[in-house]
Amino acid sequence: MEQYNNNKKCSKCDNKQDGATVQVTAPKVITSIPKVIPLPPEQVDSTKPAPTSKELIPYLKKIAEYKQTDNQVLTPTNSQIEIIKKIEDCIRKNRTRIVLSAPTGSGKSWIAATLANAYDIVILTSTNDLQDQYCGTEDGTPGDFDFMNAVRGKGQYLCEESGNTKNCNEAYCSGCDYLVYDEHVQIGNGGPLHEQKIFSKPEDELCKYFKADMIGKKSKYSVYSYASYIARMKAEKFKMLPEDKLPDRTVLVCDEAHDYDKQVSDHLSVEIDGALNQKIAGKSLPIFSDEESDKEKIEKTGCFVKEILEQFESYIANAKNCAKHSMRLSSKKHLRMHQDLKCGKHSKHDKGCDLCKRWKEFLDEGCLQCKEHLELVDDCPQNHVNVLKNVNRYTLYIQNLKFLLPGLTEYPDNYIITDIKSNKFTVAPLKTTWFTKQLLGKFNLCIFMSATINKTIISKETGIDKDTFEFIDQDSEIPKENRQIKFENTYWYKKEDDWNVVINKIKEIFDKHPDERGLIMCTSYYQITNILEKFEKNHHDDYTRLTKDKQGSKFKNTLSDNMKKSNGVIISAKAGTGIDLKDDASRFQIIIKAPFVTELADENNERAKRIQREDPERYFIKSMFRLVQFAGRSVRGNKDHAVTYVLDESAQYMVKWSGKKKPDVPNWFYDACQF
């Protein structure tokens, strides 16, 4: 038990914080994190028996019934039926690792929903937008399969204890009144597809993040992003709370699996922050020479991480005490004493409201500047705001370092120093084999599905023998005339005059589709800026058609704005994958630049350079796969149609080389190409 002298008055409101001296139950947190050693691949048991074989077609038909409306009767497509039958066959043959390659717009999400209906399932998505497509959004926008439960990252939820003034990444979780434990959430049968969620407390007394997390653990079907699920696997390793244990599930679906390697390697990589290390541990970053090998750099980094961990743990112990007190001061209980400051109109801070502004200023500059707390905790920083903001960041940093350290010391050959910047660098794994085997080992059936995937690529990226996988290669049912891909071979810009050629080509395409909505796909915001500026200057009428998809915004908001225009054209740098623009949402799309894999564009990415040196064709083929993804955003069903224009002449070479020299271009894509 921790004891605080709460018989103190708030320095701002002259009220006692919580009354007399009370005892507060210490949070169920293990401050000493056990050593975690990633097991080498040969010691990881990744095999489980196949799930019980079921006749899956009836479950597919249930999904069709769920999707139909009063105005539309839906039936499964022939492709979906074929895929389901092939999955049934795999299960009967005890083939539990499946790679599903199916065209964009073929309804792969229906396959995931069918398996969710038949078994208990975890679905992993590469983006929040794709997660929203499955489950709907937090603000109530419906998704394709609303019966599924989205489990999002902490930054997507507002902290109840803070009065919804902070998101859960900015707050500090330590024994607050809103923590959710196993007994608070029960899941029952709520009828066809839906589940009945029973809460032992009113929902507004439960933390939104932990409530979603607990529902995800107990639900029959849950949808995570790769990032949020990997974070929970790390927490499970550290066993910070008993509730961190992820339950066993029968089926894992890795959606957008062409992105699997990047998603996993990014979230197993750790950025070593020199400024932070100097501030907390008083240590400068190790210095690497050009003569040192990758292995020597990793060994030096491992020694450095060992040295700084002790200082970080000492600092974070004090910071957590400070953060706990700060959270009590900003809690609803204390803030009720200041109702005169709070705006009654807005549930969260509104920048345009004077009362909200006063409230925010008070929280940041008044309430959290607790004079009395200095008497309670030795060496307490006076700026509680910064402590509260940083404590989670520092805790996560420590956890990542502890997760990384065993790999550096036990398997230095599998790591590389990359993304070297001023006073920062990143340690990244070359292969994710051990992690992948532990991930797949949680499930009886694992399906990697994408429009752009094959056994060779997924085998290289997971480190698992390709003969382990069963490959399902599905052809497109959409007539090729409905999804024409026209290569315009516009010279890519090398100077200002070339940009004018690109702009004129876009203008020409606009004139072919004067009354239709469309999409312009860029590979950088630099391209967007150039196009917008030149259209505003030279083609103002067409400029008004453009809807900019802003960096950091949700694509659904951009789409909603564009649908208000009868001939609106979205211009985006993030619409190349996981975006669904069916029917009149887009009847034409323009691909500005051949979408080479983004890792190669980063000159500091030593991991990508290393992989390219050892396997020069891998990233070229994956770049071609990105082009296939781009081309599939606007044709999403058998009766849908749209024209794709590809401007960059290097894209034609990319497709022809891959199609003729390597059997990597899907036939259904190649057949739609017009060179």
Short description:
The protein has 675 residues and is an alpha/beta fold. The chain is 41% helix and 14% strand. The protein contains 24 helices and 21 strands.
Would you identify the regions where 5 or more consecutive residues have pLDDT less than 50? 1-45, 366-382
Q: Give me the CATH architecture of the domain at 480-674, please.
A: 3-Layer(aba) Sandwich
Number of helices: 24
Structural class: alpha/beta
Q: How helical, in percent, are the residues? A: 40-55%
Largest sheet: 7 strands, parallel
Order of strands across the main sheet: 5-8-4-9-13-3-14
Strand content: 5-15%
Give the N-terminus to C-terminus distance in angstroms. Answer: 73 Å
Average pLDDT works out at 81
Note the topology.
Elements: E1 2-4, E2 22-24, H1 57-67, H2 78-92, E3 97-101, H3 108-118, E4 121-125, H4 128-135, E5 149-151, E6 185-189, E7 195-199, H5 208-218, E8 221-225, H6 226-238, E9 251-255, H7 260-268, E10 270-273, H8 274-281, H9 294-329, H10 332-335, H11 354-367, H12 373-376, H13 384-410, E11 415-421, E12 424-429, H14 433-440, E13 445-450, H15 455-462, E14 470-473, E15 485-490, H16 496-512, E16 518-521, H17 525-538, H18 540-543, E17 546-548, H19 555-562, E18 569-572, E19 588-591, H20 598-601, H21 606-614, H22 616-631, E20 643-648, H23 649-661, H24 667-670, E21 673-674
Parallel strand pairs: 3-13, 3-14, 4-8, 4-9, 5-8, 9-13, 15-20, 15-21, 16-18, 16-19, 17-18, 19-20
Antiparallel strand pairs: 1-2, 6-7, 10-12, 11-12
Helix pairs in contact: 1-3, 6-7, 9-13, 21-22, 22-23
